[in-house]
Design brief:
- The chain has three helices and six strands; from the N terminus they run H-H-E-E-H-E-E-E-E.
- With 135 residues, the chain is of the alpha+beta class.
- The protein has one domain: Hotdog Thioesterase (Thiol Ester Dehydrase, Chain A, Roll), CATH 3.10.129.
- Strand 1 and strand 2 form a beta hairpin.
Length: 135
């Protein structure tokens, strides 16, 4: 199964990732890179990105990477560290990479960078691999 087929199907059915304006840059077995631009309606009262926005971008990258094998994978534990503020019109790129995978669990690191290459957040996610397949 081609990882891009799974990623494209998931993106087609993912209204929230579409609302975020996520674009899929790449998808391969155990990894994915996605990108989006921060819009004004995604900011908090301080005029910077709401933490849930960078979290959601990372979570989408995690989903695309962990499902790339064709097995349905769902997150069971995640954490994020916000390292630098993100401003309106910043272009964010999230890169998810598999750290470990067994028959039931997989762990991923996701790094989020702004358009000048500064890491603005680091995310770690663990997924449960179900017996279901996407196709």
């Amino acid at each position: 199964m081609n990882p891009s087929d799974v990623t494209n199907k998931m993106m087609h059915d993912d209204a929230f990732s579409q609302w975020l304006g996520i674009q899929i840059l790449s998808s391969s077995m155990g990894s994915a890179a996605v990108q989006m631009t921060l819009r004004k309606e995604m900011t908090n009262g301080f005029g910077i990105a709401h933490g849930g926005i960078t979290y959601s971008l990372a979570d989408s990258a995690l989903a695309f990477a962990s499902n790339s094998y064709g097995d349905v994978a769902v997150s069971v534990e995640t954490q994020i560290s916000h390292l630098h503020p993100v401003s309106v019109n910043d272009v964010l790129t999230a890169k998810a990479v598999e750290v470990s995978r067994s028959a039931k669990l997989a762990v991923y690191n996701v790094e989020i960078f702004n358009d000048i290459g500064k890491m603005v957040a680091h995310f770690k996610g663990t997924v449960y691999i179900k017996k279901e397949r996407h196709f």
